[in-house]
Amino acid sequence: MLPNFLIPGFAKCGTTSLHYHLGRHPQIFMSEPKEPHFFSREEISDADLRWYRSLFEGVTVEKAVGESSPSYTTPALCRRSAQRIANHIPSCRLIFLVRDPLARLESEWRMRARERWASIDIMDAIKADSALVETGLYWHQIDAYRSLFPDDRILVVFLENLTENPQHELRRCYRHLGVDDTLDTANEFIALNTAEGGRRPRKVFASLVQSRISQSVRVWLPSLHNLAKRLTTTEFDADPVWDPGVRDHIIERYQRDASQLFAFCGQPSAIWSFGKKRGPSG
User: For residue 266, how many other CB atoms are within 10 A of its CB?
Assistant: First the structure.
């Protein structure tokens, strides 16, 4: 069996939390591990496909079967992933999670800096990897999927709405997936896998945390991977120090991209501050 819906991301936009809450619905089956990253692989062999199918073995009464892999919206992989998804499961439904893109960027930078994937200087980090910025151009990535899937198969969920009114947003997801939307499965929304108050690997273990072996363990044995991270990290938290001109330029790019997303979703632009302080309401 293959899934009939996917949550392609975006990274640091609440996919872990949505994966968890959808999995509580009796008519929804969510994969374990959460992030198989199957359609973003360099190559897909017959053995890979058998492994992927095995993630969904034992599904019986569930109407919706899904997985969540933010790599499917990674800028460098997005179009290839979208095409592979269309080739293998052309009738699948898609749920995209988005949030204020500047907040998303800073959250991912904290995670990368904590795990020594990126500099603790945010300016150096974005120079080294443009994907930190480009991932927040949500519409650009979503549009790649719109060229392959009809709009009625695409649902966009704003993390801000999901956090403020989880039951309303989950019911939107349930309706999108064709399952019972009368169940109350979100008495209290649980935010998982946040980047705040994180931990930074001790230097001696940094290469291990970043290694291919570690990434394989993350997929195949997630509990062991999480234990290893706890044993090899120290507390880390920091606020970014921006060059104001660079920050303003990034915000302008985000605002242009988001205008199309807001129009597509019928979402008021006021939901995002783009890092700017809100004035008094009136």
Answer: 6
